[in-house]
Amino acid sequence: MNRRLAMIDKFQKKIQTTFQTLNIQPNDITIYTQAFSHSSFINDFKLDKVNDNERLEFLGDAVLELMVSQYLYKMHTDLPEGKLTKLRAAIVCEPSLVTFAKQLGFDQLILLGKGEEKTGGRTRPSLIADVFEAFVGALYLDLGYDATLLFFNQFIFPKITDDLMDGILDHKTFLQEYIHKTKNVQVEYKLVSEDGPAHFKTFTSEVCVEGEKLGSGVGRTKKESEQKAAQEALANLITGE
Question: How far is it between the farthest Cα atoms of the chain?
């Protein structure tokens, strides 16, 4: 058995275990193999580019937006379109998708080329987020709308709790990574105020880049207020793209 087939065989055995955990009974295992095949893996074996996961990622992105939009529409009947859009942006942004993927163990299943593996591709947020979207696309094609919605109801929507998974996502780290994509500058946090008695204080912080305020947040600790400021900044930046 050559190296490519050996890698695929190992992947398919591992993902079968994942399927059991997720209560998924696939019809076509090959489409999931494609969903986890990074372009570097395809390039290593000189295969046609359409065999990597980018087409499934394209589809999965649309399916993801539909699932989350429907969820928010039903859960928040009092919110106007603008606020629903911001909530959706926070849920489908790269940091959230990376969190979902890692909790499901998807980062350990990705099929990578030798070079990409050596340079830490398995830990690269954008790559992990893309794989999550590709998996959603594969699931939709293989088992249809109802099975995809069931997957989201069981394993994704329960994680969308108060303040969009506050305490699970490290918004500060992801904001810094997001900013570094376009400019090499530091993100700065400023404590604006402390209010309330010593045993029940609330802290308000702002996050700025090059003197421009990107977001603000309130929390029971200074750290929590900074995380919420970073979360708001991410949502604002992504919605404004």
Answer: 69
pLDDT of residue 241: 55
Rounded Cα gap, residues 130 and 132, in angstroms:
5
Q: What pTM was estimated for this model as a whole?
A: 0.71
Lookup: tokens for 96: 């959230």
Look at residue 46 and give its three-state secondary structure.
coil
Residue 128 is predicted with a pLDDT of 94
In the block, tokens 């919420």 appear at: 228
> Among this protein's residues, is 133 annotated catalytic?
yes
Which one of 61, 130, 142, 226 is the catalytic residue?
61
Place of tokens 């400019």: 183
Q: CA–CA separation, 85 vs 90, rounded Å?
A: 9
Reference 88, options 72, 99, 101, 75; nearest CA is 72
Chain CA centroid to CA 117, Å: 20
**Of 133, 224, 226, 232, catalytic:** 133
Residues of the chain falling short of pLDDT 50: 163, 165, 167-168
Instruction: State the residue for tokens 């649309």.
Output: 62
Question: Edge-to-edge strands of the sheet including 188-195?
Answer: 188-195, 202-209, 212-219
| Model pLDDT, residue 164 | 52
- The encoded tokens of residue 83 equal 């606020």
For residue 61, indicate whether it is catalytic.
yes
Tally Cβ neighbours within 10 Å of residue 35: 31
The phi-psi region of residue 37 (left if phi > 0; otherwise alpha if psi is between -120 and 50; otherwise beta) is: beta
